[in-house]
Hints:
The chain is mainly beta. About 5% of the residues lie in helices and about 40% in strands. It has two domains: about 10-170, Jelly Rolls; about 175-335, Sandwich (Jelly Rolls).
Amino acid sequence: xxxxxxxxxxxxxxxxxxxxxxxxxxxxxxxxxxxxxxEMARMLNPEPAVFIPGKYxxxxxxxxxxxxxxxxxxxYDWCVVRLARPGILKGVNIDTSHFTGNYPPAxxxxxxxxxxxxxxxxxxxxxxxxSVNLQGNSHHYHAIDAEQTYSHIRLxxxxxxxxxxLRVYAQPDNNWSAADPNALHDLIAMENGxxxxxxxxxxxxxxxxxxxxxxxxxxxxxxxxxxxxxxxNDWCIIALAHPGVIEQIEVDxxxxxxxxxxxxxxQAAAMQGGTETSLITQSMFWPELLAPQKLQMDHQHIYxxxxxxxxxxxHIRLxxxxxxxVSRLRLLGKLAQLKAE
Length: 341
């Protein structure tokens, strides 16, 4: 797997919310009008698209993405994607990397909510991104202002061509009413709705990678900061998917060997009101959920007895001392209700 590098021009929503069109989370390309040159499933791969000179298959030049044939009739091509989880859309990246003379001049996005099964001829689609112009070999980020939950996306390209990657950033909408209140849940897992609020540095790896399922596949699949050359420590703030009482914490430094943090700690609080920007200042004074712990390289650290009893919390601040890389973070706890202030 290739290391997933950061796009310095990516907007905030792409750092904060999960890509629900990620095949690793369970997203799937269901059907399309045509994928003669490059199959639609490639568009959901989590790795950046690559270009391999001289690689051809039976239909022509091999391209890393979804590519339809040249349309010789009226109309346009489309692809339907089932998101990994139903969610409230925040933004999209239509990526045409390596498509130069064969990218679509324009695209639009529709969405629907199907409670059970897949869309059919009777499904009502809502336009969430009107037609926008595309350029070749480029990332096209667009914020989406949607209030309702959607389960499926339909990407329309006008009239044909290739899209390397489709990223759909959204806040997962979980039905917690059906969850067992006595069971332990990973309350910051990306698929459950946990999301990144802020981080002071994400030079080598996104802090949102901490919330991904499974263990990291390589050093690029985690949160890694640059080497700190001044006093202090690095940190990130994470919002829980649901208020809860934490009983167990896992800090995984998988693949980080010469660059893992020396220590880590976690602060936490139950927050209501304010803004996410104001949380950065407030978080400095939150009580410790986990006092500073010495870390090891390439190791899963499990803490139970060390977890402090703070009651119900909604947000955490992970501190690493002084800098370095962490692959995954898990907070296992029971669901709880936040008392109104």
